[in-house]
Amino acid sequence: MGEKVLVTGGLGFIGLALARTLLRRGMTVRLLDNLSPQIHGAVPRPELGALVEQDVEVMRGDVCRRQDWVSALSDVAAVVHLAAETGTGQSMYRIGDYTSTNVVGTALLLDVLANDRHQVKKVVLASSRSVYGEGAYRCAGCGVVYPPIRSLDSLQAGQWEALCPSCCGPIHPVATPETARTSPASVYAATKLAQEDLVRIAGNALGIPFLIFRLQNVYGEGQSLNNPYTGILSIFSHRIRQGKVILLFEDGQESRDFVHVSDVTRAMALGLESDGGDGLTMNVGSGVPVSVDTIARNLQRQFAASRALVVSGKYRLGDIRHNFADISAIEQALGFSPKVPLEDGIERFVQWVKTQPIAEDGPEDGLDRANRELIERGLMKA
């Protein structure tokens, strides 16, 4: 596909990385972004770099305005819809904002495709592993199970690990396939699942091929270092460089699936170039669980940090304990497998971070403010 691709949220971390990937593969790109201050700062400075000299167009607009969609969709052959409000904790009290941007914004895209003339031949949606909730586990007696979100009572008691929903016995996490039961534990997750349903139903009805990618924890060079909702590698790196303590929630042994942004953008490009994944919902991850404690220690080593980690015992309501992806479906459909090992990816990330200015926070940085807001609303243990 050498035609024009619209990338929403195109000036964000994944959007800019995707634009570079698509340009290298011979596509032309239009980037739509509202330049949200939470992501880009009070005075936006998009990291366009060499993109400005290539076949890329930048359009400032909002996915919540229909006319902006009409303008952005003019003469494009495909849409990669990345624009979204992110952050599970924040979503629990900014419910209207998250629903408006994520759900209504997606509905407006589909409304234009249903009612206006266009040339769109494919829609790619960036969804989230959060739609699974806790994901898949295995119980020695009951087989594969899907535990509900952990209760307040269990968290208050320091019972971090989920238990079998059938026999209440111990369970261990296994790779979560796309066929797993969905069980959103946050408003953010609920809006991502709603996006999926809208794209799937409308895509089938309108005869427009679509792909839905459930992204795991995406990290890499170019990630925002100031947004407290952007991911733990950025959050931990920011605090290490400021000489602040890294506080690990719970016991630090909760695990996630970390995937480098270059692998994510390659998966999206493959989806645009091939019809092998059309109509499918696919996990995009490494398929490997890594504990938060391991990530923090790796970053400390890379930055030669001297301050010890602090296991805080704090918790946030709605947080999952473990989740990692079964990536066999995307391997079969698109021939995709991740190429960047975590150790290499973190080294690349840290080398990039070292080239960035250190933000001058006051006594309370963005993470402190975000946590305070959760505590004030009873969503996090003080």
What's this model, at a glance?
This protein is of the alpha/beta class. The chain contains 13 helices and 15 strands. It has 2 domains: about 5-135 and about 175-375, NAD(P)-binding Rossmann-like Domain (Rossmann fold, 3-Layer(aba) Sandwich), CATH 3.40.50.720; about 135-175, no CATH class.
Provide key terms for this protein.
single chain, 382 residues, alpha/beta, Rossmann fold, 2 domains, 7-stranded parallel beta sheet, 3-stranded antiparallel beta sheet, 16% strand
Element-level helix/strand string: EHEHEHEHHEEEHEHEEHEEHEEHEHHH
In percent terms, what proportion of residues is strand? 15-25%
Quick check: average pLDDT?
A: 91
| SS-derived structural category | alpha/beta
Largest beta sheet, briefly?
7 strands, parallel
Q: How many structural domains in the coordinates?
A: 2
* CATH fold title of the largest domain: Rossmann fold
Total beta strand runs: 15
Q: Which strands sit side by side, in order, in the main sheet?
A: 3-2-1-4-5-9-13
Tally of alpha and pi helices: 13
CATH superfamily membership of the largest domain, which one? NAD(P)-binding Rossmann-like Domain
Report the top-level CATH class of the largest domain: Alpha Beta
Shape: globular
End-to-end span in angstroms? 52 Å
Oligomer: single chain
Low-confidence stretches: none
CA-atom Rg in angstroms: 20 Å
Q: Give the second-level CATH assignment, the architecture of the largest domain.
A: 3-Layer(aba) Sandwich
